[in-house]
Amino acid sequence: MAFAPSLLILANNFLPIIRAFLNITMEYDSQLELEINIIDAFTDVAFKGNSAAVIITNDWLSDELMQSIAMENNLSETAFVKVINLHNYEIRWFSPITEIDFCGHATLASSFVIFAKNDNLIHIDFYAEAVGNLSITKMDNGYIQMDFPSRPPEVISDIPSALLNGLSIKPTEVLLNNQAYFVVYENEIDVTSVVPDNELLKQLAPYDVVVTSKSKSNDYDFVSRYFWPANGGDEDPVTGSIHTGLAPYWSEKLDKSKLIAYQASKRGGNIICNVADNKVYLLGKAVHYLKGTIKV
Description:
The chain is α+β, with helices and mostly antiparallel strands. The chain has 7 helices and 18 strands. The chain has an 18-stranded mixed beta sheet that branches.
């Protein structure tokens, strides 16, 4: 009994440490675990195309948490998909900077993940607030077809000085749709060699900038590059959404409804475009790069 008070004092001294340990353990155990998949879209080989993270949930996470996850992923987009039922989903897209109204490559990546989880599925529908219903079909040849609204650009005469001064090569023509300025060049070499001043192009927000020309190759009908410093990053590897404007433009110029496009970024990517009335059907392949778990 002589040593009992000493044990009591010792226990009292360690009690705060024990409590702290239990709180840390409880906090760790209460973390939300989410499956994450990273997909290279608009390519059939790894390390090409454009990477997107895909996170599928039964309920939306908070806007702040989704933006934080996208910032942590530091990819062009992180797509968050909410399950309605096996065939219907809602989708939202976040760049590391902000929520994006419309993203084609992350839609392709999300479709790829859903089809991979459900072998018998050949058709799904996404709903996004800014663009409405997006119909997606798994093709027999390995391509995924996305039914997107046509968003053709219109020629403008009042060209912002930030655009003219923000590109090292002057445009032949400038157009605009609800997503970006379309800078048209005479030659493909202008598209591949133009140098953007992204600090100036950032002043064009909320609009981004796509540069494009007819392709000199027999493999492609047109080429492009996409700069979006105000909304995501310096240059996007492959941008599906902008082809809902590029495809109608080049369809009229080249007088053909089926076109093959190449986005001439460092990673590069191929997009098949079918233009029909007020629709643009984009087809692409994708490659699974990573599957893991995040804790938030």
